[in-house]
Each structure stands twice: as structure tokens, then as C-alpha cells.
Specification:
By secondary structure, this protein is an alpha+beta fold. It is built from eleven helices and 16 strands. Strands 4-3-5-14-6-15-16 form a seven-stranded mixed beta sheet. A three-stranded antiparallel beta sheet has the order 12-7-13. It has a two-stranded antiparallel sheet with strand order 1-2. The longest helix is centred in the first third of the chain and has 31 residues. It starts with 6 loop residues before the first helix and ends with a strand.
């Protein structure tokens, strides 16, 4: 490296020019006077011109030295500002993000996803919370939450994470023992497992095109634990009309669960990652928020692709631009 590219040498020169003596410059830079002297001599040799009148007492700058001082002070200030900005940007990424997710998704899918993010940003820590609602995000109880349906409260920022697809399913063993329900009215002869947790409302109606039919089971078992319902289905204990595809994609692929009620569905719903305005102003939160939303979109699209060849899926109606970030404003949604 040329001595002219050595910023430390130029700092020694500037320290000398401002302090007036080699001793004072050495004290200011916490080095020996020989370091200051060698740095200046090296710069002069590389430039081919003197920066200091060495035969003067006290030492003084030449005309070229004065010009170099003026220019290098500007360059060094810009360099210091750049280093400070880089350091501040890194520090702004350090810290914790509280992420609220549906408990079932958090248990089976979330840790692998967050491990990928951690490899990109090891300085960030993600704390997983369960099932917070829109009002909790608004109040700042977490930085990011995944919500079913579009948020409406004021002061929120949101982006699609893709749709949730809900499928009516049972195990092949159950269907063999109790028969295949082909329409919702057949459910009166079956045991139904019903999700009634905090993530979404209980399914009471199924749709096929323009037709709608109520869901009425001969016997119902209600649970707030979607994983417990999945296990009951795998054990052949009943049917469910609204299992999230994310929870059963592997079960469908290996034939442990099969679709029932052909053509009948609970309507799929767009889900969103949400933060509040204070969170959005944090660079750390913005980076995670956008990465997480895109990663979730890809993940949920992959689930549909894995089963679309042999499982009927409801038609998708894109009501939201999944590349856009939306803002609520006094209860009214608006796009960035």
C-alpha cells in the first residue's frame, strides 16, 4: 500500500500541523515522536515534495503542506463520519424483536425459519410470543405479529404473508370405518374436531361456489390446540372441516390424511405481518419485518405447490399486492 493511502500517516501529519510540534502531536496521538516524524517523511517521499520546512525552528508547513492539511482534514472528517454511520447502523440492528405467532405454527415451523434469519443477522434476538391480537400490536406488546385478516386499527403497518388455506380432512382409516362425507349435511353422522382458539373464529359454514351449508356434527370435540386436533385426526378419531394446510401438508403427501367434502371449503383468508408506527421507525424491525413477510409468502406458496397435483385447493383471488407495505390511518387502510 502506498504511504499516500495510509490514513494513519495523514492523521499524524494533521495532528502535527494543528499542534505545532512533534512532541505535542505524539502526545495527542499517544505514540512516540519517531512515529510522527517517520509518517511525515514517508508522505513527503511518496509525494516528492516537502510538507514541512525541516530547517525552520519551530517547524512550519510549506505551501504544499498547508494545502494538504486543508484537504486531508475534509477527507478525514468524511472518513470518520462514514465509520461512525456504519457503527451506528450495526448497533441499530442489535437487540430483541418480540414476534407473536400462532402457537401451532410456532411449534412446528417457526424455529427453522428464524434460524435462516439468524444466519443473516446474528446480532438480532427473536423472542417468540403466542397469539397476540391487533390491539396488542397497537399498544406495543410486541414488535411484529402475524394476524389472520387485514388489520384496521390506526397506527399499524402491515404486509401480506400469504393466504391461509383450510381443508376438510380425515384419516383413511376413519373414512374406511365411517364412510366418506360428500356434503356438509353428511357431517351429522360424524364426530367433528372443532378449532375454537384465539387465532380465528370457529367455522360454522362451508362454501362450494355460490352454495353455502352450515356445519353441524353429530358429535363435536372443541379445542384451542390445533396440534391436538391434528393428532386426533391422525389417530382416526374424527373429521375436521378447516385444518390449515400448513399443519397437514406432510400428512397429505404421505396419505396419512385425505381430503373429504370434495369442493367444499372454509374460504381461505389473507394473513398479514403487522407492526406499529414506532416499530416501523426502527431499522432493526423494518429489516426483520420485510424479510419475514417475504420468507412467509414463499413458505406458504410452497405448501400449496406440494399438494396441488392431488388435493383440490380453493381458487385464489388476489385482493392485495403482496409486494406492498400498507398503513392504517385512523382506521382506514392505505398503501405505501
Amino acid at each position: 500500500m502506498s504511504k499516500l493511502d495510509d490514513l494513519t500517516a495523514w492523521r499524524y501529519f494533521v495532528a502535527f500541523a494543528r499542534s505545532g510540534t512533534l512532541t505535542a502531536a505524539a502526545t495527542a496521538m499517544d505514540v512516540n515522536t519517531a512515529n510522527i516524524s517517520r509518517a511525515i517523511s514517508g508522505l513527503e517521499k511518496a509525494l516528492g515534495i516537502p510538507l514541512v520546512r525541516h530547517n525552520a525552528r519551530p517547524l512550519e508547513l510549506t505551501k504544499e503542506g498547508a494545502q494538504a492539511l486543508k484537504r486531508m482534514e475534509t477527507i478525514l472528517r468524511a472518513h470518520d463520519a462514514l465509520i461512525s454511520q456504519i457503527s451506528d447502523d450495526r448497533r441499530s440492528l442489535e437487540g430483541k424483536i418480540r414476534l407473536s405467532s400462532a402457537p401451532g405454527f410456532a411449534s412446528r415451523r417457526l424455529t427453522g425459519l428464524l434460524h435462516r434469519f439468524k444466519e443473516l443477522h446474528p446480532e438480532m434476538t427473536i423472542e417468540i410470543l403466542g397469539g397476540l391480537k391487533e390491539a396488542d400490536v397497537q399498544k406495543g406488546f410486541c414488535e411484529v405479529a402475524t394476524l389472520t385478516g387485514e388489520p384496521t386499527l390506526s397506527g399499524l403497518v402491515y404486509m401480506s404473508r400469504g393466504r391461509n388455506v383450510y381443508l376438510p380432512v380425515a384419516s383413511p382409516e376413519y373414512v374406511k370405518r365411517f364412510g366418506m362425507p360428500f356434503s356438509p349435511e353428511n357431517l351429522r353422522s360424524h364426530t367433528g374436531y372443532v378449532y375454537n382458539g384465539p387465532v380465528r373464529e370457529e367455522t360454522k359454514v362451508l362454501y362450494r361456489g355460490d352454495d353455502a351449508e352450515p356445519v353441524v356434527f353429530g358429535r363435536s370435540v372443541r379445542s384451542t390446540d390445533i396440534l391436538a386436533i391434528r393428532q386426533a385426526l391422525l389417530d382416526g378419531m374424527g373429521v375436521a372441516v378447516d385444518m390449515p394446510l400448513v399443519q397437514i401438508v406432510e400428512d397429505l403427501r404421505r396419505g396419512a390424511l385425505v381430503p373429504i367434502l370434495p369442493g367444499w371449503f372454509r374460504p381461505s383468508v389473507e394473513c398479514f405481518n403487522v407492526t406499529n408506527r414506532a416499530g416501523w421507525r426502527s431499522r432493526r424491525v423494518r429489516i426483520f419485518f420485510e424479510w419475514y413477510s417475504k420468507a412467509m409468502q414463499e413458505l406458504f406458496s410452497s405448501y400449496e405447490a406440494q399438494v396441488s397435483a392431488f388435493v383440490g385447493l380453493p381458487a385464489e383471488k388476489l385482493l392485495y399486492d403482496r409486494d406492498r407495505i400498507y398503513f392504517t390511518d385512523a382506521g382506514t387502510g392505505g398503501a405505501s
